[in-house]
Amino acid sequence: MLDRLDTKYIDLLLLHQQFGDYLGAWKDMEKAVKAGKVRSIGISNFESERLEELCEAANIKPSVLQVECHPYYPQNALKKRLAPYGTVIESWYPLGHGDKGLINEAVFTKLAKKYGKTNVQIILRWHIQQGNIIFPKTTNPQHMKDNFDIFDFSLTADEMKEIAKLDNGRRFFNMSLEDQEKNLGAWSPAD
Fold it and tell me: Is the separation of the CB atoms in 15 and 41 below 8 Å?
């Protein structure tokens, strides 16, 4: 893989799914860290009891857990589960998969006006203050610039509490663990 990427090491390698020999895969990733080929390792989509199983078996605890996380689904309970391991949430769908209902919530519009920012910038700032790692996807150069322009202001504790009221448990990706395992069976390494 390093030859294909034309690099000497990988900054962060994620174990993407909790299927098959995921504990063996984790041990191999730990070996890659010890060999200097990978600097940090993490997991993605581990929200079942397999999260604790992996963390307890790990010599190197996951640096991140990549999961769906946004103001409608802030993953507060999962963060509590991760705390003993020092693992941080890395959010995919940080903007709720671009959901206009989420982005246009009145609280974001009000705060955007107050701070001279966009609603999206307010949501991204919320993530930063929550301690989440974010990587909002865009190919629009102006959006890329705007996504970085969130470090010249801070939301107040009261504003963070107001945003917390949006937590309604709504996910934008709703596939059960069983369905994910079935879909994995349709995938082959040649894909």
Answer: yes
- Tokens 């663990």 locate to 177
pLDDT (tens digit per residue) in 16-43: 988 889 999 999 999 999 999 999 999 9
Give me the sign of the Cα torsion angle 104, 105, 108, 113. Answer: positive
Task: Give the tens place of pLDDT for each residue, 165-189.
Answer: 999 999 987 655 454 455 444 433 3
Cα(163)–Cα(152) distance, integer angstroms: 19
In angstroms, the CA 91 to CA 73 distance is 11
Give the 3-state secondary structure of 62-124: CCEEEEECECCECCHHHHHHHHHHCCEEEEECCCCCCCHHHHCCHHHHHHHHHHCCCHHHHHH
Give the span between the Cα atoms of 157 and 163, in whole angstroms: 10
42 three-state secondary structure: strand
